[in-house]
Amino acid sequence: MPRTAELSERLQRAHVEAYVALSAEVRPLPGACELLTHLTALGVSWAIATSGRREAASATIDMLGVPSGVPIVTRDLDEVGIRR
Protein backbone atom coordinates (compact mmCIF):
# COMPACT_ATOMS: atom_id res chain seq x y z
CA MET A 1 0.00 0.00 0.00
CA PRO A 2 1.53 3.35 -0.99
CA ARG A 3 2.00 5.88 1.78
CA THR A 4 -0.28 8.84 1.24
CA ALA A 5 -0.88 11.93 3.34
CA GLU A 6 -4.23 10.44 4.37
CA LEU A 7 -2.67 7.12 5.42
CA SER A 8 0.08 8.94 7.30
CA GLU A 9 -2.49 11.02 9.19
CA ARG A 10 -4.56 7.92 10.03
CA LEU A 11 -1.46 6.13 11.36
CA GLN A 12 -0.44 9.13 13.45
CA ARG A 13 -3.97 9.44 14.87
CA ALA A 14 -4.02 5.71 15.72
CA HIS A 15 -0.66 6.05 17.47
CA VAL A 16 -1.87 8.98 19.58
CA GLU A 17 -5.07 7.14 20.51
CA ALA A 18 -3.13 4.00 21.53
CA TYR A 19 -0.60 5.99 23.55
CA VAL A 20 -3.29 8.01 25.33
CA ALA A 21 -5.15 4.79 26.16
CA LEU A 22 -2.00 3.35 27.74
CA SER A 23 -0.76 6.57 29.36
CA ALA A 24 -2.48 5.78 32.66
CA GLU A 25 0.07 2.98 33.09
CA VAL A 26 3.07 5.25 32.47
CA ARG A 27 4.94 6.43 35.54
CA PRO A 28 7.92 8.81 35.83
CA LEU A 29 11.23 7.22 36.73
CA PRO A 30 11.91 7.28 40.48
CA GLY A 31 13.24 10.69 41.45
CA ALA A 32 12.38 12.39 38.14
CA CYS A 33 9.83 14.82 39.59
CA GLU A 34 12.08 15.61 42.52
CA LEU A 35 15.03 16.26 40.17
CA LEU A 36 13.03 18.71 38.07
CA THR A 37 11.75 20.47 41.19
CA HIS A 38 15.30 20.71 42.56
CA LEU A 39 16.72 22.05 39.28
CA THR A 40 13.97 24.67 39.18
CA ALA A 41 14.64 25.69 42.80
CA LEU A 42 18.35 26.10 41.99
CA GLY A 43 17.52 28.27 38.98
CA VAL A 44 18.99 25.76 36.52
CA SER A 45 17.48 26.05 33.06
CA TRP A 46 16.07 22.81 31.69
CA ALA A 47 13.68 21.68 28.97
CA ILE A 48 11.61 18.71 27.91
CA ALA A 49 12.16 17.17 24.47
CA THR A 50 10.32 14.24 22.96
CA SER A 51 9.97 12.66 19.55
CA GLY A 52 6.24 12.33 20.26
CA ARG A 53 3.50 14.78 19.41
CA ARG A 54 2.32 17.20 22.10
CA GLU A 55 -1.12 15.58 22.20
CA ALA A 56 0.39 12.22 23.13
CA ALA A 57 3.02 13.63 25.50
CA SER A 58 0.74 15.99 27.44
CA ALA A 59 -0.28 13.46 30.08
CA THR A 60 3.32 12.56 30.83
CA ILE A 61 4.40 16.21 30.87
CA ASP A 62 1.59 16.97 33.33
CA MET A 63 2.57 13.94 35.45
CA LEU A 64 6.10 15.35 35.76
CA GLY A 65 4.69 18.65 37.03
CA VAL A 66 6.48 20.69 34.40
CA PRO A 67 5.91 24.34 35.30
CA SER A 68 4.73 26.87 32.75
CA GLY A 69 7.55 28.61 30.97
CA VAL A 70 9.71 25.49 30.65
CA PRO A 71 10.52 24.90 26.97
CA ILE A 72 8.85 21.80 25.57
CA VAL A 73 9.97 20.50 22.18
CA THR A 74 7.71 17.98 20.47
CA ARG A 75 7.55 16.38 17.04
CA ASP A 76 4.76 18.68 15.88
CA LEU A 77 6.95 21.81 16.13
CA ASP A 78 8.84 23.09 13.11
CA GLU A 79 12.36 24.52 13.09
CA VAL A 80 11.37 27.79 14.78
CA GLY A 81 9.06 26.28 17.38
CA ILE A 82 5.75 27.04 15.69
CA ARG A 83 2.98 24.46 15.85
CA ARG A 84 2.10 22.97 12.51
Number of strands: 2
User: How many angstroms does the end-to-end distance come to?
Assistant: 26 Å
List the strand order in the largest sheet.
1-2
What composes the largest sheet? 2 strands, parallel
Describe the structure.
The protein contains three helices and two strands, in the order ααβαβ. With 84 residues, the protein is mainly α. Helix 1 (5-22) runs parallel beside helix 3 (54-63). The chain has one domain (5-73). It is 46% helix and 5% strand. A two-stranded parallel sheet has the order 1-2.
Which features characterize this protein?
two-stranded parallel sheet, elongated, 3 helices, 2 strands, 84 residues, mainly alpha
The gist of it:
This protein has 84 residues and is mainly α.
Layout of helices and strands, plus pairs?
Blueprint lengths: L4 H18 L9 H11 L5 E2 L4 H10 L8 E2 L11
Helix pairs in contact: 1-3
